[in-house]
Design goal:
alpha+beta, three-stranded antiparallel sheet, 3 strands, 37% helix, extended
Length: 131
């Protein structure tokens, strides 16, 4: 088995080091390099691994379900609404005041972006009830 030794400046490497360009005509020939690191319960030094995966490991084998399509559509719509709301100068002062009023409460949102997401998600869900 091969062993990966990292430089002293690099403690751990975790995640995709290279990805497959799915739009490329050579996608079938490309490999994804995936590194994982876990903290072992024992004092084992073999807690880092590197994998090579082809396009088949990345491609989906089943069609998206109705629920997945709904979630994708909801995310796209809410994301666009949040972006438009952030750029709307007529609502900024009111949104900041409403955010500051709720942020210190028990279930208050801690960032303005999460606050706007909660408002737009609620508006989308009210306008598009699920069966």
């Amino acid at each position: 088995m091969a062993k990966a030794e990292y430089a002293d400046l690099v403690k751990t490497v975790s995640g995709a080091l290279t990805k497959i360009n799915k739009k490329s005509q050579h996608a079938e020939d490309q490999k994804m390099v995936l590194a994982t690191h876990r903290v072992a319960a024992t004092q084992s030094r073999s807690c880092s691994r590197i994998y090579l995966r082809g396009i088949s490991a990345v491609s989906r084998s089943t069609a998206p379900t109705v629920n997945e399509l709904f979630v994708r559509q909801r995310f796209s719509a809410v994301s666009a609404a949040v972006k438009a709301r952030q750029e709307d100068m007529t609502k900024i002062d009111a949104d900041i005041a409403a955010f500051n009023a709720q942020k210190d409460s028990v279930n208050g949102k801690k960032t303005i972006k999460s606050f706007l997401w909660s408002l737009e998600c609620a508006a989308y869900d009210e306008a598009h009830p699920r069966g």
